[in-house]
């Protein structure tokens, strides 16, 4: 089996490498020192077609393959693993829409995610649910045409600034893992409290936050997929993201040594 990049992928790698060196490398030191992600990188990445690169052309995506997605994270990870973590959350957070979303939801979120006009975060971890991500305590109760969300999401990459947060919440806790649904919540939704940045030991420029939902009311249109049985959609998003984490970590190490 030949694992070499194709000629097209090599050209792609060269272009993202140049972009990262020119547009990102000069920003790393300040971003790490101030623990602040340079938000202008989202639209700059979007303009080059590097955000959510596998998404279909009809939404503005490049329709590239997963290898190209990994190449992006290889090259950005070489410059800054924090930048890579933050930028790749855009895909992780919108992937459940790719798996389960309606055409209206794809039309609503994908163009902004791909262009970088809006930023996205993924909130699955909770104070009492990390590795055991099916054991969440956040609930979403249906109330007429809305859901009322209650709970806390921890260690949310991009959480401090994201325009939208994709979260897991249980619509029926008695059903355990089967009762989990996915919601995409606007940062200005009533009852959403952004608790700001958390301190970490590293990756300072990838802002990580805590988001509290205090009877946060969202329209039923924010439900991504079925009201129960959403957990596999979250796992698919994580699987997509793991490849990118691999690229980021691999090249990040090369960059350091
Ligand atoms: C930089 C950073 C960014 C992050 N970004 C996000 C994000 O964007 N969205 C999000 O939802 N989460 C995010 N997280 C959270 C991350 O997903 C969790 O940290 C992870 O799921 C582990 O959960 P935990 O920290 O609660 O550790 P725990 O689950 O408490 O695990 C602690 C230790 O116990 C071990 N362990 C756990 N269960 C078992 C078991 N059954 N048997 C043996 N060993 C076990 C683990 O391997 C680990 O070593 C982020 C974390 C970091 C550090």
Tell me briefly what this model is.
With 257 residues, the chain is α+β, with helices and mostly antiparallel strands.
SSE layout and pairing:
Layout: H1 7-24, H2 28-34, H3 41-47, H4 66-79, H5 81-100, H6 103-115, E1 120-123, E2 139-143, E3 146-157, E4 164-170, E5 180-186, E6 192-197, E7 208-219, E8 223-224, H7 231-256
Parallel strand pairs: 1-4
Antiparallel strand pairs: 2-3, 3-7, 4-5, 5-8, 6-7
Helix pairs in contact: 1-4, 4-5, 4-7, 5-6, 5-7
The structure holds flavin-adenine dinucleotide.
Radius of gyration: 18 Å
Structural class: alpha+beta
Low-confidence stretches: none
SS strand fraction: 15-25%
Biggest beta-sheet profile:
4 strands, mixed
The dominant shape is globular
Order of helices and strands: HHHHHHEEEEEEEEH
Ions, cofactors and other bound molecules: flavin-adenine dinucleotide
Label the CATH architecture of the largest domain.
Orthogonal Bundle
Helical segment count: 7
Percent of residues in helices comes to: 40-55%
- Tally of domains: 2
Strand neighbour order, sheet with most strands: 1-4-5-8
CATH evolutionary superfamily of the largest domain: Acyl-CoA dehydrogenase/oxidase, N-terminal domain
Mean pLDDT: 94
Q: What's the total number of strands?
A: 8
Q: What is the name of the CATH topology of the largest domain? A: Butyryl-Coa Dehydrogenase, subunit A, domain 1
